[in-house]
Amino acid sequence: MAFQSSTVEYLDNGICLEGLFVYDDSLDQPLPTVLIAHAWGGRDEFVCDKARRVAELGYGAFALDMYGKGVLGSSVEENVALMTPFMDDRAMLQRRICAALDAVRGLDSVDTDLIAAMGFCFGGLCVLDLARTGADICGVVSFHGLLAAPGNIEGKPINSRVLVLHGHDDPMVPTEDIARLQEDLTRAGCDWQFHSYGKTMHAFTNPVANDPGFGTVYHPLADKRSWQTMQMFLEECFNDR
User: Fold this and answer.
1) Contact residues for 138 (Cβ-Cβ < 8 A; gap 6+)
2) What domains can be seen in the chain, in order of their start residue?
3) What mean pLDDT, rounded, does the chain reach?
């Protein structure tokens, strides 16, 4: 294996964004590629490490940027301030993640017919919204994602498969959001799966999450199970294309 990584600058509405692209250049190219959307703090080391792990599976991996080059939160208050404008303006969120998809499609090492997306927390909501736009991608995976409906997209078909990996005890996701998501996916003609892990809270894939009062707790077994499920899902998506 000979892993290569490079930063990729791209634009959305005049905002400079910076993604990280990782791939094994010993493999035949172009490669099936996975976009990876970060949590509410920005494109941090957590999501960049996930990109490296996805590249180890034989895919290209692009850790995308929703906030802007070098923009990271360092506290709950800063993270909320960064995420809230996108929660309040889902059309802006959708345009921003579609800009990342366009940037990935412009990379020589990417098989543009074999693209998927995955995201964590806020990033899970981002990739679900990407699917809701009708984007022509193979599949999306939400890890402990926020599930609130966007409100600006109704009745649009979803062309990608969807996998939602959810902690049953996640206090940040109301049960009505789960029911609404499943209804919307079904109405959109989507091939969807929803996996719920018992005794599991928000941020269950993040080893530094340890705040039961806030609702974020790492769960090693749910982390392992969800990663294995994601791998099977991606293999299915890419092989059936």
Assistant:
1) 32, 114, 115, 116, 160, 161, 237, 238, 241
2) 3-239 (3.40.50.1820)
3) 97
